[in-house]
Amino acid sequence: MQPLRSETMSPKEEFSPAHLMGPMQYMAHEAPDMRIEGRQFTYRQLEIITNNFARVVGKGGYGIVYHGCLEDSTEVAIKVSSKSSTQGRKEFFAEVQSLTKVHHKNLVALIGYCMEGEHLALVFEYMALGCLKDHLTGRTSTAIVLSWKQRLQIVYEAAKGLDYLHTGCDIIHRDVKSSNILLGQNLEAKISDFGFSKVSGSSNRMDRGSYVGLVGTPGYIDPELSTTLRHTYKSDVYSFGVVILEILTGEPPNRNIDGDSHIAKRVASKVAKGNINAIMDPKLRGEFCQNSVWKVVDLAMRCVALSSSQRPTMVEVVLQLKECLDLETAGQPNGSIEDDVRLSSALAVKTIKFAPAAR
């Protein structure tokens, strides 16, 4: 499903000269202030690198992503802005502004760019195994069945990337989802797509870490946004909680079955029954440490709490995922039935607050 494209501008933004300009004027207005690291490509070079844009590896509201190969045989992904989309151009500049600040092994790296006339493009490192979503849903011919340990490692690495955005860069991603977590050849995970991200560098402490507007992808959007229209770090945490629920269940966020349309509501009802196997993706065939799984379920449900004040920070999410991964790696025994019942009962009480209202 495509991300939402509506966005509410703050009064300060509403009369900004940039919003009164056409696409080319807007580009000219923004470009001089850009300090883009990496190599600058001409459009002709991009045509050569992509073999005249022969292979499409992704699509979005921004435009199309093509596979390319540099002179030294390095594979790259080239995101080309749609000429007809003003929103796509806004996302281009938002992504450029964010990428000039971020440098982390769990964030997709920018290699270069093209800003030639109407041609706008970003050149990224190529992630050979595509996005996490494809492997969880099995919707592509190249999808693989990820083990529980692999899934846990992937979300742990993605969590570290998101934590870096929040604590190291003051950036709110605003479109965290499984299709924006890309996997390299060795399943290393990196967060991608910063087209909706915003720097939250307000000098006012009360406003720091928040941004007014409504963007994102249905199923991952913080329920509080329906009333506040204010993205915060905890909005990203909610979205990441949905991703954790996806790796647990193998199911999409939204599914219209028996009224339990959202994944948090579906999992909450199963937690109340205390049966971990009813929650877990059948493709895992029960091959997981129940102690680590219950801890991950608990973490996920806290992330998707309706009230942002009840959600953990990404720092806490990283620490808890590391503990769960260590537990899984150590091969701890599954624990007694009494332990499972005790933990699942505690979770059942808490999930009354966590299950979101029907969408």
TrEMBL record:
- Does the record's keyword annotation contain Kinase? yes
Which InterPro entries does the protein's record reference? Kinase-like_dom_sf, Prot_kinase_dom, Protein_kinase_ATP_BS, Ser/Thr_kinase_AS
This entry's Gene Ontology molecular function terms read: ATP binding; protein serine/threonine kinase activity
Fetch the PROSITE patterns from UniProt: PROTEIN_KINASE_ATP (PS00107), PROTEIN_KINASE_DOM (PS50011), PROTEIN_KINASE_ST (PS00108)
Task: List residues of the Protein kinase domain.
Answer: 51-325
Q: Does the keyword Ion transport apply?
A: no
Q: Which UniProt keywords apply?
A: ATP-binding, Kinase, Nucleotide-binding, Serine/threonine-protein kinase, Transferase
- Sites binding ATP sit at 79
Q: Which SMART domains match?
A: S_TKc
Query: Which PANTHER family has this protein been placed in?
Result: OS01G0810800 PROTEIN, OS07G0107800 PROTEIN-RELATED
Q: Which family does it belong to?
A: Belongs to the protein kinase superfamily.
The protein's name: Leucine-rich repeat protein kinase family protein
Q: State the organism of origin.
A: Rhynchospora pubera
